[in-house]
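Look over both lines before class:
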Amino acid sequence: MRLGTVTAVILAGLLAAGNAPMQCASDDREPLPTVPEAPEECYLLAQRLLAQGDVGGWRSALEYVIERFPDSRYAARARDDLAHGPLPPPGPVAP
């Protein structure tokens, strides 16, 4: 193969991978939505994953919201959540 052909094949592969919807490595997780209405759905998925104790899935879902929907209000929330880390679940209030 010529160098130009190899470069074209590699570039095509990278572009195809960049357009594929992001999916978590595990099959037991919900797939991340890719439709235009998805920022809220992805953000809520991140919250469900965190509630299940899946901090890696939480982080991946929030990063997906930021990458895929950077101008949405949910991207702003996701940036804030990532900056502060996962918060512990609310517990009883001390007197």
